[in-house]
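Sequence in, structure out. First:
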Amino acid sequence: MGRDKATLVFEGTTLVERVVAAVTPRCSPVFVIAAPGQPLPDLPAQVLRDEVRGVGPLVAVGRGLRAAADAGCQWAFVCAVDMPYLSADLIDMLADPAKRLGVDIVLPWDGRDHYLAGIYRTDLSSAIADLVAAGERSMRALADRVDTQRLVLDPQKALTNVNTPEDLP
């Protein structure tokens, strides 16, 4: 895209600020994984820096899950920063099935998997480390390896993601 999505401004706020504000009512602590040297606004979240750029989301998710586990959390909502309409309601829809079913991951499915908008067990960080050591970089590799439940949903505005500035309404 040529520009950092986290700092894209939508309706007067950066995307990262919007996402942090959306998850904060349901998630504590909140972690933001950022690239090395990536400028971010001040956030009411703990910013963790990737050690290397361009290795895909799996490494970042593993780092975030380790941090959440170290903070005493059994579950974590994992999401991308490019979701301008994300809301706590989506987290609520996914959290109950995660606890009730006892699975490793609950993903929303509306015709496709949304790997970066799901509930994950924090103890998956070791499975992620094994996958990364084996050369895997995709979230699909993790979801295919562990007990994953897909929650079938009608299309949700909250699952909209932005890949280019033109995708912003």
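Second:
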Amino acid sequence: MTVTKSLPRSQPEMQGVSSSGILSFLEEIERRKLELHGFMILRHGYVLAEGWWKPYHPAIPHALYSLTKSFTSLAAGFAVQEGKLSLDQRVLAYFPELDHGAIGLNIGDMKIRHLLTMTTGHETDTARFGVAGDFLQHTTAARVGDRSDRDYIRGFMEHPVTQAPGTHFLYNSGASHVLGAILERVTGSRLVDYLQPRLFAPLGIDRPAWEQAPHGENTGGWGLKLCTEDIAKFGQLLLNKGEWNGRRLIASEWIEQAGSRQVDNRPIVPPEGQPINIDWIQGYGYQFWRCRHNAYRGDGAFGQYCIVLPDQDAVIAIHGGLQDMQGVMDAIWQHLLPSMNEPLPEPDAAVKDRLASKLNSLELGEQDGLRSLPWDTSRKRYSIQSNEQGVQRIGFMFTENRCIFQWWDHQGEHQLIAGIGEWEDHHRGSEKAAVRGVWLDRSRFEIYVYPPDSPHYDRLTFQFQGNGVSLQHEHLSFTPLKHEFIGVEEK
């Protein structure tokens, strides 16, 4: 079998999509200040438009978070196809080493299909995601259950199942993890190794990185990293109902069931005072969400999307770093969906040029700023008021095209080098980030810190006034971090 690494490309109008519609979508994303990292739109199997917001790059795999669940769903489909898994088998049957007599009420009735459809009977998610660390030195961590030995399987089993499985939808990343662990038991392989010859290799996807839990199993509900085009290929396989380049990889029945409305996920009691994200209450399949307009998707925290639109024969793949995921869905329905018609005449040359220019100039952070240092000196230091992060002092050293930002805490001195106008690569041990600084005006300076494989970012905004400075620090995470520091200049 011939394996191609890249999807075929075409012009939007040749596949019945207006360039102006794609352009208006990108402009809407910009207007709403929605931070996307990578974007592809496909129709009839062709990539029509693609772009990455600097410093993100098409060749660098990006964390998928819960979009990982949809790949675990495909692994379950392969196992069912090969006679290794039954959706009606009880979950406990795969864990004979557990003391079944000590297992709580209802869990004995939990089946594989309940893991797939998020109907395990739990009232709260068995998995938790959080952030730990000090100022600009934090990590995002996940766990299932609360056991000190970090045994995710036992942690899941010990979590109270208060309702009968199959009667109640609750989004539950722990369920996806246990599903993945069961798949590893019945196949004798890690999830990534099981999917490599069945899914990744046929699609021309290099063997990806996939996080492992403390006890060694791949994390079935998160932890996979893929490039934007890899997501697009996955979406095209789904759109083709399991066929790839004329070869059937997985039964069409599984794809149809996985993307169909298996359960009602509308809240029984709508939360008071909170907006309901309408594309998250259209029903749930096998680790896929139903959308409006007869579409369905896999998605992950902070804006990782694989959206399949069967009626339009289209796929949209997105990486992002945002909180408002519904906002992106709204922009798709408002701008991209109406742009899909049958073959169209060539666009106006000006529109074609504007779209090309927009796709080639995508970049995160403010673009316009002062080009010269608004101070007479290139070095400043400030003493910082007492704070929870333990930052004691901060300092700046400026050159023509670079800023060295320093801070001191209980661990000593640290520094971050930001390019002025251009991104600077920053390395701290095995961690990498792209860093850029910009003078918004004569008294405000911002630094952006973006890891190239992650949605998490740091934004530092400095306000200088007289001999003082205020620093606002924002870190995108599951529990958004926002800190403010006040400092006085040292003489």
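Remark: DSSP finds ten helices and 22 strands in the chain.
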